[in-house]
Amino acid sequence: MADSLRRLVNTSSFSVLQDKLESWYKDYHVISCDQNLNRCCELVELTSKIQGQLFTILNFTAREGGHYAGVDVLKSRLLPWLGTCFSMATSSVTNDTSLNLIQESVEKERKIRELSASHENDMQKMETQLCSTHLQLDSVKQELADAHLQLDNTKNMSATTLLATEDEILQLKAELRASRDQVETYKRKLDVLDDYERQVRLLRDEVSFLTAEKSMLQERLVRSCSPSPLPRQSRPSSPLKSESPTRAQLTNSSRHARLVSRFSDLYAVERLEAQSLLRRYIDDLEMVQRIIFIATVEAFQAAKLAYRQFKLRVKKTLSPSHLGPETLEDSVVDYIVRNLDLYDVQASVNDVINAMNVNPRISFPPEVDFVLINSFIRETCRVAFAMQTLDSPLDLAFTSGGELYSDNKYRRSYDSEFTAPLVAYHVWPALVEGDGVIVKGEAVTRRGALWRSRSRSCSPVRSGSPTRTLGFSRSRSPSPGRLSASRL
């Protein structure tokens, strides 16, 4: 059935019938009657052929439906139509009406064909646009892929450049550190050179002084050995035997005032600098103030011990060649005052740091060291050593945890409890001369200070780290006992 229907469609019989009808209509009044009849018979034959093909398709369709399929359609449409065609009764529909209906159906079919053709054209146009759109989309995708590839290349180049820049920065930092270390080395060498030059100048002064003294002694010796007409008892006393004050005695008052002022500067300037430096690593202000106070006390103890040892060495060196007129003790003090730069302050600083490392009342983070306040300890040791050369040496007042507060020795700190009678801890020691207080210290008074001091004194001793105990080489300068006799 499908093959018959396809052949009927492919032959376009109705189109040919329509074309023949239109051609006949145009030539109806031109041609003869026989020609009109021939054309009409031709159309009838063509119509019968089409009807035969349609009846064949109808037969095949009915067979495919089985015995009962399509019975209602045949009864309702085919049989009534056959009855009207073969009956002699006149039809209710006139010829004109049937022709109009056929014409309308032909018009509708033509419109349908036109609409289908326009639809096909539209579909082709849309397919063409869709293909162009797909091509544009493919080009955009390709551009996007190229952009991603370029971006990846740029990222890789940027990463490579960044790594190279970081390597250069690290190299420059290493070179900068090396340069700084070299500068520090040169500075230390320059300081040592300055010390050597100062010692050379001092030695030259000492040599000139000793040369002059030697010449005077030789003149005295020559005069004493030469014969004199006058009796020995009537000789006037030599002016060398007269008691003349030494340089240390002459400058005692000025050095006293300068050292007291320098001690006040230590409290007002260097102490605050050391405190701000320690606060970067220790949050507890009380612990920072304790560290500075203990460093000051230990510096005075180390300086006094170094002064006694230095004095003994100088006295041992000067005693064989001392002739006067001043006493040996005055000569020793005068020599120390003239040569304060021979004091080995670094050894005292090392002793102070070692003592602080084992002090149970203070603690320090393990990653840092007491070397942070090295400059403060050094200046305190120098001031303490110079104070021992005074006629009445200056010293720090005795302190103890939980002692009774005294207005003569201390000032209360701003965060103290002003009604508390006991000292919780000391911020700065008092400077005394004999039994009199020269400069007041600073203390913090709080209630329960005695219990606080006992609890702190019972805490275990903190062991020093290797950097604290072994971080310094005790490079002492030559002691006065090892100096040549020409220098003394």
TrEMBL record:
<feature type="coiled-coil region">
    <location>
        <begin position="137"/>
        <end position="220"/>
    </location>
</feature>
<keyword id="KW-0446">Lipid-binding</keyword>
<keyword id="KW-1000">Mitochondrion outer membrane</keyword>
<dbReference type="Pfam" id="PF16026">
    <property type="entry name" value="MIEAP"/>
</dbReference>
<feature type="compositionally biased region" description="Low complexity">
    <location>
        <begin position="473"/>
        <end position="488"/>
    </location>
</feature>
<dbReference type="GO" id="GO:0035695">
    <property type="term" value="P:mitophagy by internal vacuole formation"/>
</dbReference>
<dbReference type="GO" id="GO:0005759">
    <property type="term" value="C:mitochondrial matrix"/>
</dbReference>
<protein>
    <recommendedName>
        <fullName>Mitochondria-eating protein</fullName>
    </recommendedName>
</protein>
<dbReference type="GO" id="GO:0035694">
    <property type="term" value="P:mitochondrial protein catabolic process"/>
</dbReference>
<keyword id="KW-0175">Coiled coil</keyword>
<feature type="compositionally biased region" description="Low complexity">
    <location>
        <begin position="456"/>
        <end position="465"/>
    </location>
</feature>
<keyword id="KW-0963">Cytoplasm</keyword>
<dbReference type="InterPro" id="IPR031981">
    <property type="entry name" value="MIEAP_C"/>
</dbReference>
<keyword id="KW-0472">Membrane</keyword>
<feature type="region of interest" description="Disordered">
    <location>
        <begin position="456"/>
        <end position="488"/>
    </location>
</feature>
<dbReference type="GO" id="GO:0005741">
    <property type="term" value="C:mitochondrial outer membrane"/>
</dbReference>
<comment type="similarity">
    <text>Belongs to the MIEAP family.</text>
</comment>
<dbReference type="GO" id="GO:0008289">
    <property type="term" value="F:lipid binding"/>
</dbReference>
<feature type="compositionally biased region" description="Low complexity">
    <location>
        <begin position="223"/>
        <end position="242"/>
    </location>
</feature>
<feature type="domain" description="Mitochondria-eating protein C-terminal">
    <location>
        <begin position="255"/>
        <end position="445"/>
    </location>
</feature>
<feature type="region of interest" description="Disordered">
    <location>
        <begin position="221"/>
        <end position="251"/>
    </location>
</feature>
<keyword id="KW-0496">Mitochondrion</keyword>
<dbReference type="InterPro" id="IPR026169">
    <property type="entry name" value="MIEAP"/>
</dbReference>
